[in-house]
Amino acid sequence: xxxxxxxxxxxxxxxxxxxxxxxxxxxxxxxxxxxxxxxxxxxxxxxxxxxxxxxxxxxxxxxxxxxxxxxxxxxxxxxxxxxxxxxxxxxxxxxxxxxxxxxxxxxxxxxxxxxxxxxxxxxxxxxxxxxxxxxxxxxxxxxxxxxxxxxxxxxxxxxxxxxxxxxxxxxxxxxxxxxxxxxxxxxxxxxxxxxxxxxxxxxxxxxxxxxxxxxxxxxxxxxxxxxxxxxxxxxxxxxxxxxxxxxxxxxxxxxxxxxxxxxxxxxxxxxxxxxxxxxxxxxxxxxxxxxxxxxxxxxx
Length: 300
Fold this sequence. Notes:
The protein has about 300 residues and is an alpha/beta fold. Helix content is about 30%, strand content about 30%. The longest helix has 17 residues, at about 230-245.
């Protein structure tokens, strides 16, 4: 690449811009003399907020326009939430950098002024089948005297929080990473209940940013200083498991991995048919293919 200015593609939402800025700031701190420019785009997934994602293409609707922009040379890289990336990227493109993972947990958000445990029916907003399945299971213990019902909720984080405060939902489920990147974790209007990753298993790649670019452009070498080895390893493993499962957003599947005392720990849940399956496995770092296969087999 001739230019030292890296053009970074991002969606227009506050969270997407915040995530792109994190990458931009990391690149500018490398000492390699890099400057950055954000290129904002609106995707089909942003324009169509009235339908569930699985009705018009799944999470890939957030990605396609950026891939075309990279291939046309309009941008050098695009910053994505890794959990939104489809299994197959456009030919010639790949994940050229993976920064350090943010908090991977899911969070139940309620208005600070309310006590939902007093309600006979608790309506929770989420568009995720994975979150729906897990909160309905956990709700039987958290609120034994209440019926838990999930309703579809899409839009950016601020839109979802506004709908919560308007009373459209009693609670909503969000990713801790997004709340932290937006600086919302200290907002006194809300109460936050963080679920640990053993109890409420995250989506594959949750909390990770994936930087996509052309594999033949040399961009990977230029932005290599922002790469985080453990995050890359975990993302590769989680995506491998999902690929073995042939999993899209049409099925409730959670996958989370972490390095623990020199080994890789994997937690997973899936629902296929009427049965919910869970796994908790350990594997050696030099044999992650086998671990991925064992995890997928346990969740099939």
